[in-house]
Automatic annotation (TrEMBL):
The keyword Membrane applies. PANTHER family: ABC TRANSPORTER ATP-BINDING PROTEIN, HIGH-AFFINITY BRANCHED-CHAIN AMINO ACID TRANSPORT ATP-BINDING PROTEIN LIVF. GO terms for molecular function: ATP binding; ATP hydrolysis activity; branched-chain amino acid transmembrane transporter activity. This is Amino acid/amide ABC transporter ATP-binding protein 2 (HAAT family). It comes from Roseateles asaccharophilus. The lineage of its organism: Bacteria, Pseudomonadati, Pseudomonadota, Betaproteobacteria, Burkholderiales.
Length: 250
């Protein structure tokens, strides 16, 4: 019997048009259950567009998206979130700046209408991952630093168990020390089990540290997929696919 994990999410020949622009050109992507898959590529390659298409924010014009074997290509975004238990952390974080940290997390906890109904064990786990959230529990989210806002955005996605997390460039613009904290939190998420992650990232050391699998995009297509460890060890392949070497970032 094969030990290869089942694919929780798959895209087959997915095309996306936005107005007159043909953005995705036949994306084929597999995201194995229980693993963290990195989606890499140069700026403008189509990574964010892929996440938006999966979430139904942009409609695929051709091809099929399947979640746990079921087609979701034509589902509206709220139904994808609720039915499939998918959480999306966009590049702009999507937090509510006028609300406190507590209120942001409560809004994301779909099964709770008050703080008393929230899963306190899970909250304590999030506080261990992101101590700043406990410290600034009653602060307006808009007054947090960039790194704290990113932590809040990811915590919102994790405040309830989710089958799939889509995270778009979490380390973008963050100081190196904050990036290290973020990497450690995502490692803990991996260790905790149960969640599958598709992570778009431009920081290749983050990719190397976290990725189980990797898919590389160029011009709206997947041009490489495989084990992250294999890409990390092959400088010639890194140069060809990404235009730089991971070794240069160590």
């Amino acid at each position: 019997m094969s030990d290869t994990p089942k694919n929780l999410l798959s895209l087959q020949d997915v095309h996306t048009h936005v107005g007159a622009y043909h953005i995705l050109h036949g994306v084929n992507l597999e995201v194995p259950a229980g693993q963290l898959t990195m989606l890499l590529g140069r700026n403008g390659a189509g990574k964010t567009s892929t996440l938006r298409t999966i979430m139904g924010l942009w409609q695929a014009s051709r091809g099929e998206i399947r979640f746990d074997g079921q087609p979701i290509t034509r589902l509206p975004t709220p139904e994808i979130t609720q039915r499939c238990d998918i959480a999306y952390v966009p590049e702009n974080m999507g937090i509510f700046g006028d609300l406190t940290v507590r209120e942001n997390l409560l809004l994301a906890a779909r099964r709770a209408r008050s703080l008393e109904q929230m899963d306190t064990q899970r909250l304590d786990w999030l506080f261990q991952l992101f101590p700043a959230l406990k410290k600034f529990w009653l602060y307006p989210a808009g007054k947090l630093s960039g790194g704290q806002k990113q932590m809040l955005a990811i915590a919102r996605a994790m405040v309830e168990p989710r089958r799939l997390l889509l995270i778009d460039e979490p380390s973008k613009g963050l100081a190196p020390a904050i990036v290290l904290n973020l990497v450690e939190a995502l490692r803990e998420l991996k260790r905790s089990g149960g969640a599958t992650v598709l992570l778009v990232e431009q920081n290749f050391m983050v990719a190397k540290a976290l990725g189980d699998r990797v898919a590389v995009m160029d011009d709206g297509r997947i041009v490489h997929s495989g084990a992250m460890a294999e890409l990390s060890a092959d400088e010639a392949l890194q140069q060809r696919l990404l235009g730089l070497s991971l070794a240069a970032h160590q």
